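Comment on both lines for my students:
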Amino acid sequence: MSQKRKLLHPEVNAFCFSPDERYLVTWNGNLKESGDSKAYKVWEVLTGKSLMEKPSPMCSPDGSGLFPHFTFSPDSRFFARCTEREVAVHSLPSCAPYKIPETSGNLRFENGVEHFQFSPKENVIAVWSPQLGDMPSCLHVVNVETGKK
């Protein structure tokens, strides 16, 4: 990139690039409880365009609830975020929800979502669900593009 860009997001205290460096996520540190509807932003680096603004979610891929609140696919075509029981995948650059084939859209786990991450080489997500009552803990591996487990 031969030009400098200013990406305006007040009080940013964390950021991360997508694997191919086309996208950048910034976070101002405000947690869900703050009510900040623009706590994190997704940017297209080359244009400086803000693609999405969202409040901080309660959950994060590593289970800490802290930044980063989602993870990029290795080819940067997708990013995923989670709630207590679901993993939602979004397409880039639109940031629109992506309907995973052979699913109702999001990946739902009755045991909940403890941790998840994309494979470093393929558009495959691994999701760790904790033990819940009589339901044992389980590692789910799903191909985002085909929906195959």
Remarks:
- The chain has a mean pLDDT of 87.
- The CA atoms of residues 22 and 68 lie 17 Å apart.
